[in-house]
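Q: What structure does this chain adopt?
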Amino acid sequence: MVRERTDLNAYTLNIMVNVFCKDFKIEKAEEFLMEMEERGVFADVVTYNTLINAYSREGNIERGLELMKLMRDKGLEPRLLTYNSIVYGLCNNGLYERAKEVVNEMMQKGLSPDTATYNGLLVECCWKCNLVEAEGIFGEMLSRGVVPNLVSYSSMIGVFSRTGNLDRMYTYYKDMQLKGLVPDRIVYTILIGGFCKNGAVSDAMKVRDEMVKRGCLMDVVTYNAILDGLCKETMLSEADLLFNEMVERGVFPDFCTYTTLINGYCKTRNMDRALSLFSSMLQRSLKPDVVTYNTLIDGFCKTGAMEKAIELRDNMISKKIHPNYITYGTLMNGFCEGGYLSEAFKLWDEMVDKGIEPNKVICNSLVKGYCRHGDPQKAFEFLKKMKSRGISPDCITYNTLIRGFMQEENVDIAFELVNQMEKESIAPDLITYNVILHQLCRLGRMEEANTVYRKMIERGVNPDRSTYMSLIDGYISQENLGEAFHFHDKMLQRGLVPDDNF
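A:
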């Protein structure tokens, strides 16, 4: 590798090792080092630091630790830069506690941690959303007189942004500015994302205005964060304006941009606009994935356009995008809502044939489909099929069945289902009791309704307005105004507002 030369020295060695490492050819760097040592040119602290840093950033922290031991064996003491590379590598590999041990070791050797040392620890514990540890590290950093930089603050701002603690997020942001640090695009984007994810779009727009005023250009990530917030708040006119702005400013919309907007329009049932964006996405050679298709399919299912939903399912298959359990569940729910249970079960069979296991949500959709269209007995039979596949029913399953049988005035089976719930350790909830109470009161079976009311109180389930209004209406229909006023008063005592039109 090395030609015969007379000017080979440690300086030349370090230049070459650095070049190899920057080119991600660390093994060649070590080969070169061995060759140089054979020629009497030996590595120094700089050489080892370069190699250790390269291995740490590559993720091979074990080799980095081996090299640090090797340099010690050769009488070379690791320096701050050496330790910082090791701390970074350990944290990057999720070995946070080991990294802290290394920091303690370096301090015992008389080396003081600097901003880079603490940033290695901060980035890792912030990534894991360990708020207490992150604030502890940041506090220790300040107590030692180590000055935080943009990385330090962006880590802290980021962790509070992700965990929804907007006050703490903004406190660190203001503190950063007081320390004379100028926010960059990353910091602004983190702030905007935090506000948008937590529904504070107006605050996000203020940050955005400040960002633009400072001359900090927004990139696609920043735009996407705001678009996500606007779409979640159904502020789609504003989202469209922002989308047009980003295009006019030469910021190219990406997969995330389109998926966010498509989702926003699907939720508001504006399927024409959603399809228009989908077409635009394809024209830009951006490939939709299963999530994009599922979003559109869900939108069409909720508007009752099942033919279009199936067409999209077929289209995704033709593009080698495989439907998943969400695709099938969405389509089945759409057919169940429309009363096309045979179509829903065709999809069930297709899904199972493809080896996709149905889940509880899908099963609950089918139970609901049967009950909603007047066949709770078939829903009950499907419950057995559901259990045979190892899918345990939940409170939603039983509540749907109970509602179905109560609407058929089959009170006995409804009570049997409540007993079955309790046997399976599924506690009846407010919906369970209200469904039964409402029907009993409608049928004039007030004594049984009262028993159910007392039972729900005993079980710690608090009645709501619907509970009391069912009882009041039931007693009024039997011209028992005394009991009606009794429950009217109880309702007031619980701070609930009755309908006084009786």
